[in-house]
Amino acid sequence: MKIISILGSTGSIGYQTLEIIKQNPSKFKIAGLTTNNNIQLLEKQINKFNPIAVAVMNKEKAEILKSKINIPVYSGIKGINKIAKLNETNTVVNSLVGSIGVEPTYEAITAGKDIALANKETLVAAGSIIMNKAKKNDVKIMPIDSEHSAIFQCLNGEDKKNVKNIIITCSGGPFKNYTKKQMQNVTKEEALKHPTWNMGEKITVDSATLMNKGFEVIETYWLYNIDYSKIKVIIHPQSIIHSLVEFKDNSVMAQLGAPNMKTPIQYALSYPERIQSNLKELNLIKTKKLEFEKPNFKLFPCLKYAYESGKIGGTMPAVMNASNEVAVSAFLKNKIKFMDIPKIVKMTIDKHKPLKNPTLHQILEIDKKIKIETEINIRICS
């Protein structure tokens, strides 16, 4: 049985992970849960799954919860790290949103826990440090992501020396057919209407700018040790093919499935076993057609910035991520326009002189510094 702690249990990925665990009580058991500040939902999860300890990022909310339950309640980033390192846990699901997820991943790996990773920022900001630590501690990192789950499955049992290209699919988001003029006035509500996936607000906006796909490019580099020149992105509006791997003999392997995040979550938890699912089956007859096209780097420059930042390496991806995180938050608060997001990201990365081979402490300090600088850039733009 896998004993699991979920970082971010009240978010979209965390909630779906708990549903899978509930359906498979003989295979999975909960040890720890965390939330940012949604203690109402967390309390319900505590009553249902009986964790041995929980953490709340918001310290005031943590004190409120302490008065209502009889298990340890930790708070702040130290509290999140405690749940990531619980002795009873053997697998940590990191579904935190933003760079706050980096440190708990590192702490969990240091404690020898296997990682089911939904927090993209972990590898974007600190890929070298995280992957080296995982290798040193003999820890598995399983991606909770339809694209990286697909790549993992296509590469399973294959010699990576035979890989010619890894092709990451992308729905294109809600604005793939928009003109540059139309893009200037898109609203928060429009950006949050993803055509195929139901996700949290931040990742949904990242999908609309294609920054999310840029993050996946950087993740691919670290997860599968493949050069950026061999990592391609194609638009596939139906979101049926989740990614493909092309080999040197020109054979192409693809993983298909109905768009549902529970499938990659379940596979990340159960691997190397496959377990029964009650999710919607893929019906290719009803699907009828699968379409593909090139991404528009001019209309969606965030994808370009991610490639460039990844190739530069060092602290540059962390800077890009921090700037984007603040810019997306500002857009969701209606402080800036949608197309200001890539402008602010570029403004920030253009000013940065990357540090090569940074420590985790340096990355986390730069993350804080860049977020402050980005707030200033936002005031300039607005």
Would you mind describing this structure in some detail?
The protein has 382 residues and is α/β, with parallel strands linked by helices. Helix content is 48%, strand content 15%. The chain has helices at residues 12-23, 39-49, 59-66, 76-84, 102-110, 121-136, 146-155, 180-183, 188-191, 201-209, 211-224, 262-270, 284-287, 301-312, 316-332, 340-351, 360-381, and strands at 2-7, 28-35, 53-56, 73-75, 91-94, 114-117, 141-143, 163-170, 231-235, 241-247, 252-256. β10 (241-247) and β11 (252-256) form a beta hairpin.
* Multimerization status: single chain
Strand arrangement, largest sheet?
4-3-2-1-5-6-7
Secondary-structure element pattern, one letter each: EHEHEHEHEHEHEHEHHHHEEEHHHHHH
What count of helical segments does DSSP give? Answer: 17
CATH class of the domain at 2-143: Alpha Beta
- Name the CATH superfamily assignment of the domain at 2-143: NAD(P)-binding Rossmann-like Domain
Shape: globular
- Say how many strands there are: 11
* The CATH topology of the domain at 2-143: Rossmann fold
Q: How much beta, percentage-wise?
A: 5-15%
> Compute the gyration radius: what is it?
20 Å
Q: How far is the N terminus from the C terminus?
A: 52 Å
Mean pLDDT: 95
The residue ranges in which pLDDT falls below 50 over 5 or more consecutive positions are none
Please state the second-level CATH architecture of the domain at 2-143: 3-Layer(aba) Sandwich
Bin the helical content: 40-55%
Main sheet characteristics: 7 strands, parallel
